[in-house]
Amino acid sequence: MIPQSTIDRIIDAANIVDVVSDYVTLRRAGASYKGLCPFHDDKTPSFSVSPARGVCKCFSCGKGGNPVHFIMEMEQMNYVEALKHLAKKYGITVEEEQMTDEQRQHLNERESMFAVNEWAANYFSQTMQNHQDGRAIGLAYFRSRGFRDDIITKFRLGFCLDAPNAMSDEAKAKGYNEKYLIDTGLCVKRDNGTIYDRFRGRAMFPWVAVNGKVVAFGGRVLDARTKGVNQKYVNSPDSSIYHKARELYGIFQAKKMIAKEDMVYMVEGYTDVLAMHQCGIENVVANSGTALNEAQIHLLHRFTNNITLIYDGDEAGIHAATRSTDMLLAEE
After folding, report:
1. What distance in Å separates the CA atoms of residue 216 and residue 113, rounded to the nearest whole number?
2. How far apart are CA 29 and CA 35, in angstroms?
3. Domains identified in the chain, total number
4. What pLDDT, in 10s, does the model give residues 183-236?
5. How far apart are CA 332 and CA 328, in angstroms?
6. What is the CATH number of the domain that holds 206?
7. How far apart are CA 237 and CA 183, in angstroms?
8. Which of 98, 133, 167, 307: CA 20 to 30 A from 61?
9. Based on the number of CB atoms within 10 Å of its own CB, is 173 exposed (0-12), middle (13-18) or buried (19 or more)?
10. In sequence order, what DSSP letters do the residues of 53-99 get, joined into one string?
């Protein structure tokens, strides 16, 4: 639980114009500001922000509120998550009571899965930076592709050791339940009841949802093993916290710039996203192995109505671009 004094500090610090401007281009209109509503397909600016009252409201769809309510709606967060989001933005430390073992056991399944994914993302990153094999294989791969260290850090890239249980053994030693290692897809359960690490020996690409939580991973097989391999990339399976058809790789890192530029580039894969960020183009996402669908279009619609497709120039890419264009036009 967050102390009321801390909640008051967060609310006092959160400037409504500053918060909304991360997502909407605002223009002054007298004592207020106006912009296109991020919650519906707004043709004319109907979203009003009042710095004096500290609130925002769309006079078309009715959505709005104070900075906490805005973040809750925009990021699909609950109240506590929105407070923490704003606290991080304004550099306010949130100190919560230490959970007891009994309280940890009562964490719901989704929270437990998010927790183990967050730990795994840090583990893969630290392994690549600090372990001999991580640096020699994982980090060497990303650098061979020309990616700078700041891009590697920005996208939390990592490496999973080429050992059947290196990651899962470390996770269990840290107190994470084997059930959630399986439920998230980090591990696979054998017929005899034992488990093994799904991504062993692979370069790791965490999928970070629009709310900043790690929901899944993509792993690329490296070195000579790519020859003759049908599936260079392995992705987390769908789960209660991840549905690939509804997610877009890079959306968390891109959302602010998409809103600012009022346009998004849609590319095919992980490394396309990384390469464009490295070139200074940050309003870019990838659907990474899935055909563009309505759920992904609706997600992007929250930030912009303008989408530019940059798919591969092969026959498959041209077909996907044609199909996607028809869908985008149908969704206006």
Report:
1. 10
2. 10
3. 3
4. 999 999 999 999 999 999 999 999 998 878 899 999 999 865 555 555 688 999
5. 6
6. 3.90.980.10
7. 9
8. 307
9. exposed
10. TTEEEETTT--EESHHHHHHHHHT--HHHHHHHHHHHTT-----PPP
